Amino acid sequence: MSHPDARHPAPARAPDCRTGLDLHRSAGAAGWARSRSPAGSACPPPPCTRCWCVAGSTAWPGSTGSPASRYEHDHPGALSHVDVAKFGNVPGGGGHRFVGRAQGDRNRAATPDKPRNSYRNPKIVTAFVHTVLDDQSRVAYAEIHADETAVTATAVLRRAVTWFATRGVTIERVLSPPG
Questions:
Q1: What topology does CATH give the domain 72-89+125-179?
Q2: Confidence (pLDDT) at 125
Q3: Which backbone phi and psi does 84 adopt, to 5 degrees?
Q4: Which residue ranges are recorded for the region named Disordered (predicted)?
Q5: Span 5-12, average pLDDT
């Protein structure tokens, strides 16, 4: 091999690379192609887009072509979403990803009021954010806890219902993820 780039068999330019304007002409009335590639664009859409548009399709494979079903509620409290998110706690002063490894280790070692492991380093555990979100108004109630047990989740939901009630919102239905 005489040149290091001789190993790459891919051409520098695709032979059927067309501009956005050419794609418009070949796609015909395909609205999806028109919305994704502006006319006269020097940059064609991704190859998969080109294949679907040339074939005359306006939708991705597996889609029914019908719009997604949406639901709307006319008043706050008609539906509330409940979820739990898991986050790693960050030591006081910042973690190693923000301040660097050496300073992050010093911040971690100086974190007060944390249980210690067998090497006498503080255990930086995770926190669970329990959230109750009203679907219509998008008002949220959240609490941070050390676990995500059913007892904690139901206690958070009870306090959230009380919190929403003090603001004049009566929770009618609750939607939670499986698990």
A1: Nucleotidyltransferase; domain 5 (3.30.420)
A2: 78
A3: -130, 130
A4: 1-20, 92-119
A5: 56
